[in-house]
Structure formats: structure tokens, C-alpha cells
Amino acid sequence: MKYLARQKDTSRIQAFSKWLRAIAPLKGFESQRQLAIASKVNEATISRIWNEAQLPDELTVAKLAKTLGVEMLDALKKAGYTVSTDFTTASSPLPLPKVTPQGKTIMVPIIGSVKAGPNGISFQEPLGTHEVVESALIVGVQSYWLQVRGDSMSPYLLPGDLVLFHECPDVPSGSLAIIIIDGEEGTVKWLKRDDNYIRLEAENPYYPPREFRDKELLNVKIVGPVTEISRKPARRNGGIIRP
């Protein structure tokens, strides 16, 4: 299974990290912190990319390219993305490459919330369907698109984004996942875990990490991993607006 963004696509991760470490000093950035502040990318994210622990998503690559003064297409290629010159702008002023699905597509339900119900997970607020490439699904495992709310994962995820997840609680540490805490509505967070410890991290630095140990782990339910993001442009009077 491909786990989003922190999957170990080793060659791509290493290639982009090596390129970033080489070009940043040439552009006047002497530290990861300077680059994070200038690019408005979370410093922890910069550190993971710098140290070959994370492959940046397209939005992060676009922000870094703009900050470093390099062609975005070149930066995307350094990260191993297949791109064209046809772009769509999402709910961010930075352009994202248009993704053309490869292979057969099927429609997957969109839901507005995930909660813990008396008989397991309750998937609520049906919002229609959205396509996904069939090869991205897991045979025998239920998959859904969840509409993102709030800004705790901004700028990695924005309100209105759709995240594809699979109902499969066996999620490795370092993955993006859907989590239910204390029976409340599910949330999207970076997951770090071992046998006696769970740490949930937001991308937005204004939201501190949450840690759970020992008996506290009973209050945390891991729904499943996020493996894809879909972002649609919102338009008003011919322009792009934030959703």
C-alpha cells in the first residue's frame, strides 16, 4: 500500500533532498529555519525533507521553488513528479500540476465526518462521490473520500480538500491517517507510534502535538491511512478563492 507523502520512495526522496541541500546555500539560505520562514513551509516539514525522511507534495515543492527562485517545473521533476505545462490553481495562490488519472477510474463515496459508533466506525454526512484510480484501492477494504475541515493541517491540507483513506487500522508510524480521539469526530494528522505510545502531529505550527501513552491509548482509535489528496479550484467572478 502507498502511504501518502511519508512513504519511503527512496530514490525520489534522496534525489530531491540532495538537490535542496545543494541549492539552498547558493540562494542565500544558511539554515533550514531560514528556508522554512521564507517559504512558509513548516520547519519540521523542511527538516524531514532535508534529512531524506519525506517526499514533499506538489504544493510544498511549488513553495520551495518560488522561494529559491527556480522554475517550478524543474523542481517538480527533481521530486520525481510527472508534469505537463497545463496547470490548474487550487485554493492557494501557488499552482499545482494537473493530475491525469492513469488506468480505470471508479467513483468512491465522499463523507463529511468520521465518528466512533456503537457498532464500530460511523461514516456520516454523505456528500456525493469522487473518482479514484482503481489501482489506488485495496481489494476487500472499504475506502472513502473525507472532506477536510479546519486549518490544523494547513498548508499541507486546506479546508475543502478531499483525502482518500482506507478503513484499515494497521497504519505504520510516519503516515498521514484518520484518527478518532475520545469518541469525537475523526481528524487527519501525522501519526507516530510504537507499542506504548502514539503522537499526533498537525502541519500548522499553531496546533501543538498530542501524545498518548499506556492507558490513554484506549482513547485513540486509528481509522486508516490517507493515501491521496484531491483539491478542486473554487471560482468566483472568474477568479480563484479560498473555499
Descriptive report:
- The protein is α+β, with helices and mostly antiparallel strands.
- It folds into 2 domains: 10-89, Orthogonal Bundle (434 Repressor (Amino-terminal Domain)), CATH 1.10.260.40; 107-232, Umud Fragment, subunit A, CATH 2.10.109.10.
- It is 21% helix and 35% strand.
- The chain contains 5 helices and 13 strands.
- It has a 9-stranded mixed sheet with strand order 4-3-5-6-11-7-8-9-10, with no helix packed on it. Strands 1-2 form a two-stranded antiparallel ribbon. The protein has a two-stranded antiparallel sheet with strand order 12-13.
- Strand 3 and strand 4 form a beta hairpin.
- Helix 2 packs across helix 3 (43-50).
- It is globular.
- Mean pLDDT is 77; it is low at 1-8, 84-101 and 234-243.
Features:
about 240 residues, alpha+beta, 434 Repressor (Amino-terminal Domain), 2 domains, 5 helices, disordered N terminus
Overall pLDDT level: 77
Uncertain residue segments: 1-8, 84-101, 234-243
- Through-space gap between termini: 31 Å
Using the 3D structure, state the CATH architecture of the largest domain: Ribbon
Describe the main β-sheet briefly: 9 strands, mixed
The figure for the number of domains is: 2
Total E-strand runs: 13
Instruction: Give the overall silhouette.
Output: globular
- Stated plainly, the CATH topology of the largest domain is called Umud Fragment, subunit A
Give the strand order, joined by hyphens, for the main sheet: 4-3-5-6-11-7-8-9-10
Global structural class: alpha+beta
Helical content class: 10-25%
Top-tier CATH class of the largest domain: Mainly Beta
